[in-house]
């Protein structure tokens, strides 16, 4: 897995001050994507043990609310195998901090065996996260007044409640 950017003290991609990891690689290729350079799986730097350690340290201050993972597409199959053990470490080290994941896949697609992102890792990745921002960016539904997303079709999903209730529950933060 590669990443394009790491942002410390990000306030645009989730509640509170966050650390954001922009994963590389995306086949969705949404028209007018805000970061098309991240479609390339080799964009940026390799995600290494040193990268993990840096991110874990960046999450330590009390004023950091949590981690946001976006891209590119963090849930491309090639990224999931590296993302999962990292998210396990974050959850173990900082159980009170939140994990947000942005994906172009819908929650329903992630459980559909015909979807490339429905792998053996995706269920546990979702179980480790608190909020899933799902759905591809659609230019015709762009709305700059929306909180934490770019187009009206995208949803903010409360993953713990969704998994507990067995149906999609929107996040009301």
Describe the overall structure.
It is a single chain. α2 packs parallel to α4. The longest helix has 17 residues, at 77-93. The radius of gyration is 15 Å and the shape is globular. It starts with a strand and ends in an 8-residue tail after the last helix. With 173 residues, the protein is of the alpha/beta class. β1 and β2 form a beta hairpin. Helix content is 26%, strand content 23%. The protein has a seven-stranded mixed sheet with strand order 3-1-2-4-5-6-7. The model has no long low-confidence stretch (mean pLDDT 96).
Secondary-structure map:
Layout: E1 2-10, E2 17-23, E3 45-46, H1 49-58, E4 64-71, H2 77-93, E5 98-102, H3 107-110, H4 122-128, E6 131-134, E7 155-158, H5 159-165
Parallel strand pairs: 2-4, 4-5, 5-6
Antiparallel strand pairs: 1-2, 1-3, 6-7
Feature tags:
7 strands, 23% strand, 173 residues, 7-stranded mixed beta sheet, alpha/beta
Q: What's the quick description here?
A:
This protein is of the alpha/beta class.
Q: Helical percent range?
A: 25-40%
Question: What is the gyration radius calculated from CA atoms?
Answer: 15 Å
Spatial strand order of the main sheet = 3-1-2-4-5-6-7
How much of the sequence is in beta strands?
15-25%
Separation of termini?
31 Å
Count helical runs: 5
Biggest sheet statistics: 7 strands, mixed
Unreliable stretches: none
- Which sequence of SSEs, written as H and E, runs from N to C? EEEHEHEHHEEH
Total count of strands: 7
Structural class: alpha/beta
**Quick one: overall form?**
globular
Averaged pLDDT, please? 96
């Amino acid at each position: 897995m590669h990443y394009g950017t790491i942002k410390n003290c990000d306030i645009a991609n989730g509640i509170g001050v966050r650390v954001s990891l922009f994963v590389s690689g995306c086949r969705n290729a949404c028209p007018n994507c805000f970061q098309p350079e991240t479609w390339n799986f080799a964009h940026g730097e390799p995600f290494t043990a040193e990268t993990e350690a840096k991110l874990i340290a960046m999450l330590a201050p009390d004023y950091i609310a949590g981690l946001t993972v976006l891209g590119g597409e963090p849930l491309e199959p090639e990224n999931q195998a590296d993302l999962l053990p990292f998210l396990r470490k974050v959850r173990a080290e900082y159980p009170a901090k939140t994990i947000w994941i942005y994906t172009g896949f819908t929650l329903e697609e992630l459980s559909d065996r015909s979807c490339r992102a429905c792998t053996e890792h995706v269920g546990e990745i979702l179980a480790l996260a608190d909020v899933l921002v799902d759905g591809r960016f659609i230019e015709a539904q762009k709305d700059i007044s929306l909180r934490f997303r770019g187009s009206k079709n995208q949803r903010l999903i409360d993953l713990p409640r969704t998994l507990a209730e067995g149906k999609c529950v929107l996040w009301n933060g």
